[in-house]
Design a protein that fits this description.
By secondary structure, the protein is mainly α. The chain is 72% helix and 0% strand. The two termini are 57 Å apart. 16% of the residues are buried.
Length: 195
Amino acid sequence: MSSPTMADPAPSLPLEIPDKPILSTAEVVSLAEVAVRRAEKFGTLIDTLESGVNKRAADAAESLDRAGFQSKDQQAAADKAAAIARREVVTNSSDARWAHLKELNAAADSLATTAQLWASPVTVLARAGLGTQERSNFQQRLEGSGIVDLRNAALLAVATDNKIMGAAIVAILDRMPARSRPFSARDLADKLVGE
């Protein structure tokens, strides 16, 4: 007789918890506009720095051209001047470039956090009333309900625009095997919170 084996523990899923606050739609639009302006400003800074390097290289080549040096010597002088100028620019502009990048990264982090929280209508609906007594009551009442009761509850939630009831229904649907669900959580979420 073989001894009973312990069941394998359920695999844990990595949960990335964002450290940025949730943004409203208006804040997302505003942050996106600010990020675009910052990116344009950063691009202008890089272009300005690059044009300064190119100008010094062109000046070195032009100086040797006026002195009658061969084109290969002019090119070598231009390359050397560009390398020196680029090192100086990198050293002198490091703080400014990093400041721009930090601003852009902060905006990207806030938008990424918001994107996770608003990833789909189901995600948004699933948060409605989380931790409230009202949602707990709906879930307790609907737990073990049949297909007809769940459909009627979903119709009532949509008709009364009751997102907390809808969230409770989504939680119940989530525990059901996919083939047993009387309707999709996505359909319910689309009707209660939209796209």
